[in-house]
Amino acid sequence: LFCSHDAAAAFTVASASTIAKGSKIPPVELHWGFNPITKVFLPQYIADKKVLIVSTVGAFIPSETARIRTYLENQDQLAKELGIDNVVVYSVNDGAVVGLWNQALLKDFESSSAAKKKKNKLITFFGDPSGEFTRACGMISEDDRELGLVGRSKPFVLCVENNVVSRVLADSGSNSNSENKFHQDVTSAKAVIDALKRREQTSIKFGSDPASSSSSSSAAAYEPNNTTVQRGTN
């Protein structure tokens, strides 16, 4: 289930270029929860699935909270129309911070009129505390020390099937912004849905027939060391 530190380090050194279509997902562990920390080996977690990996600049940043909320609001469309089994949201924060952000975001969403009594069945939240996954993807952003953003990730989305990247949607902008706002034009749920639909219309399909996916498959849990990772309980 887990990748040795030596193997992950070797991959990181060898992966100086930015992740691209056809790349395999780096053999890296992400963190879920805190005290104890559950380390989730990402290729194992998403094996045999069609997933979106959504990077964020950081937990609790208002614009990032708003962007991830678009995935909660559009999870039915992602699952039923595009056959997405899971949306993995992560940031370069520890598991405790990401867990608190997860809880706050879901509590706010599920109490809103937009939720219409819907629960999160598609999205999981993880931390990349050392930035190992982000570095392996070649997606470390320019530091903004004024805002306290050092070693963070650029906003990007990977469309992945069977651990192979089929599409990369990335924000080319910098994290530096006096109003603490980040470009979201290509990495919001709506932008991703539109991009993947356009791709299907040109017969370059992402995944299989969306009708073949089910809510039970999208809500499947991963159990490293007998600890269940559940959506919304981080």
Query: What summary fits the major beta sheet?
Result: 5 strands, mixed
Rg to the nearest angstrom? 17 Å
Structural class: alpha/beta
Mean pLDDT: 76
- Poorly predicted spans: 1-16, 174-183, 203-228
Shape: globular
> So how many helices?
8
The neighbouring-strand order within the major sheet is 5-4-3-6-7
Number of DSSP strand runs: 7
Task: Give the DSSP E fraction (strand runs of 2 or more residues).
Answer: 15-25%
Spell out the helices and strands N to C: HEEHEHHEHEHEEHH
* Cα-to-Cα separation, first versus last residue: 20 Å
In helices, the fraction of residues equals: 25-40%
Write the layout of secondary structure elements.
Blueprint: H1 5-14, E1 29-32, E2 38-41, H2 42-45, E3 50-56, H3 62-73, H4 75-82, E4 86-91, H5 95-110, E5 123-127, H6 132-136, E6 156-161, E7 164-170, H7 189-201, H8 215-218
Parallel strand pairs: 3-4, 4-5
Antiparallel strand pairs: 1-2, 3-6, 6-7
Helix pairs in contact: 3-5
